[in-house]
Amino acid sequence: MFKIKNFTDNDDVRILDQMGPFQVIEYTRDLSVSPGDAALAYYCNAMNVRKRQVLCDVSKANITVQAGAMQWTVGNVNATTGVKGVGDLFGKALRGSVTGESAIKPEYTGDGLLMLEPTYKHILLVDLADWNGSIVLDDGLFLACDSRLKHKAVMRSNFSSAVAGGEGLFNLGIQGSGVVCLESAVPKEELIEIELQNDVLKVDGNFVIAWSGSLNFTVERSGKSLIGSAASGEGLVNVYRGTGKVLMAPITRGFA
Questions:
Q1: 3 state DSSP class of 125
Q2: Distance CA 7, CA 139 (A)
Q3: Using only C-alpha atoms, what is the Rg of the chain?
Q4: Cα–Cα nearest to 218, from 169, 175, 172
């Protein structure tokens, strides 16, 4: 048995969101500052630049996390590689090499608590039931998820996506029933959600952070011809076509 004091019952800590086995914790003020850092800490707090962490209840589900994301555990919590054989190891290594994600993501089992490393980024909890069981993520967005969810490398529909669109050829896709925890440079309050019903979204720039696995993603000319594209001043655009959802930031996702 264990008991945790001066944590969620601390008036400097608040729970921003909770879903499935995850709780998003935010520290309302940074109290661990020196006189030389006090002014910076003051303005960071005023601009919503605050430390956040994810607390995982492993008794509710086994948890898969990005490599190196664990800060501490308490109770009966065991870490495994999540690898289920040579074939699974090869598949994960191949997927990691093409998506840029860590090849082996630790899986935590048991019935205790797991705390992830603090971050100044914003934490998004996404229920895949709201995405028809399939979501594709931008590079570096994945933080943790219910271990029942399946990961796969999603290839772009055309090779020009990798070259002309400033993107990699593969993205991390997650499928199944459960909750996934994402790290975003942009808070949920500023993210734009667009639902497509057999329609098309064209975006000039790297603003989209996630989209439904049912959508067809390509990079295309903004106009029907090279001359038309040049005249519009846009050139190539990212195109999401079909039925599904797109999550888009108002600033380029490289901002952090």
A1: strand
A2: 32
A3: 20
A4: 169
How do residues 73-107 score in pLDDT, each as one tens digit? 999 999 998 655 434 444 554 444 444 555 678 99
Torsion of CA 179, 242, 252, 123, to 10 degrees: -10
What gap in Å lies between CA 113 and CA 124, rounded to an integer?
19
Instruction: Determine the distance from the C-alpha atom of residue 165 to the mean position of all C-alpha atoms in its chain, rounded to a whole number.
Output: 21
* Two structure tokens written together for 144: 């943790």
Rounded distance between C-alpha atoms, residue 96 and residue 105, angstroms: 10
Give me the residue label for tokens 């921003």: 16
User: Token pair for residue 254?
Assistant: 């490289």
**Average pLDDT, integer, range 176-194:** 95
Domains of the chain: 13-248 (3.60.160.10)
- What DSSP letter does each residue of 73-85 carry, written as one string? EESSEEEE----S
pLDDT in tens, 100-135: 555 678 999 999 999 999 999 999 999 999 999 999
Q: How far apart are CA 207 and CA 222, in angstroms?
A: 16
**68 vs 88: CA distance, rounded Å:** 21
Length of the chain: 256
Identify whether the C-beta of residue 15 lies closer than 8 Å to the C-beta of residue 8.
yes
Alpha helices in the chain (DSSP H): 38-46, 86-99, 160-163, 226-232
DSSP 3-state assignment of 188? Answer: helix
CA distance 54 to 123: 8
Model pTM score: 0.83
